[in-house]
Design goal:
Layout (H helix, E strand, L loop, with lengths): L9 E3 L4 E3 L4 E8 L4 E7 L2 E7 L3 E7 L1 E6 L6 E4 L3 E4 L3 E7 L4 E7 L2
Antiparallel strand pairs: 1-3, 2-3, 3-4, 4-11, 5-10, 6-9, 6-11, 7-8, 7-10
């Protein structure tokens, strides 16, 4: 899987989305067709997120371990990989060290 290195002709919200005392930070990107993504980074630690819409999390740099709500297995994801999260659900993401950078796409 090849991840994009840049997006063209987009609107970026300059106000950051800040979670967990600044340990998870993202910025919202709006595309000309109205679709939305967030670009962010996660510092070491474990964090739980709920989802309204279905999401695809693409890992740009670093590694993370993910447990989807309702599951007992944890999967590890590295740069160049992704995982999907159902809508009206959630996931726990753990970063062992360094930074994990991601692109979150909101799926239809």
């Amino acid at each position: 899987m090849t991840l994009p290195t840049q997006f063209a002709a987009v609107t970026v919200h300059t106000k950051a989305n800040v979670y967990f005392d600044g340990n998870v930070v993202s910025h919202t990107v709006i595309f000309s067709d109205g679709s939305k993504k967030t670009l962010g980074l996660i510092r070491p630690g474990s964090y739980h997120f709920g989802t309204d819409a279905a999401e695809r999390m693409e890992i740009v740099a670093g590694t993370c371990a993910v447990t989807l709500d309702g599951q007992t297995t944890t999967a590890t994801y590295a740069a160049g990989t992704h995982f999907d999260v159902p809508g009206k659900s959630g996931f726990t993401i753990a970063v062992p060290s360094g930074l994990c950078e991601y692109i979150c796409s909101f799926l239809p």
